Amino acid sequence: VTESDEVEERDLVARALGRLSGVHRQVLVMKYLDGRAVADIAAELGRTRVQVQSLLQRARDQLRRELEVAS
Question: What is the pTM of this model?
Answer without folding.
Answer: 0.87
